[in-house]
Amino acid sequence: MSSSPSSSVVEARKALDNRLIEIRRDAGLTGDELSARCGWHPAKTSRIQSGKSAPSEDDLRAWCAACNAENQIPDLIATARAVESMYTEWRRMEPTGLRAAQESVAALYQRTRLFRVYASRVIPGMAQTPEYTAAVLRSIQRDRVPIDDVEEAVEARLKRQRMLFSGRHRFGLLVEEYVLHTAVCSSETMSAQLGHLVTAASTPTDHGRYWRVGTTAPRTPSRAARAPLVRSWRPQPRHGCPTGAQGWNVTGSR
Length: 254
Fold this sequence. Notes:
The protein is α/β, with parallel strands linked by helices. It has ten helices and seven strands.
């Protein structure tokens, strides 16, 4: 599977790769040792772990057998099939433009009450500003989609956002700190985007605080996208964040 323009597909794929890495580490195996047990070249293990090559169902079975984790096989295969289905659906929709892709998930978003999102490349879509969304979708359209309907796609996503902010939905976002510095747009747009994220994370509803934002360990930031608003975030240990992650409280909030 080649890289998909859909950030949700990319994140789902990376989550599967990370699970395989965790299974190998839990078994106490190096990449070379796992490769030897599976009977393939170490380069294949490296490609799977880095996301450059999608594992087949037979690869998943061999991986789990080598790690004595056969109980993980059904769930991993189901996850891999779901990722492949997402990718296939996106590619099918590409010729019709980006607006169709945005509208295709509206009903699913409306039914969903709790969102758990991991983001390693861009701010999650439900927390994006119009300008940030336009920058992300424009880069996708320019590289892969022949139809230029970015403005319509942005409006479709904003319509979906307004539905999500009804107060009936809850969000748990785990965002790599790298994302907060990545130059996918201008510095002004990124500064406004970070301010929007701060506001969303600190806005209560009738049901209490419905956004929870966390970040993984920081990576080297892109100097072009550094924004002063990042300094208004305080890292705090927070219950419920994955191991190795930190919770983030907005300055002045609880």
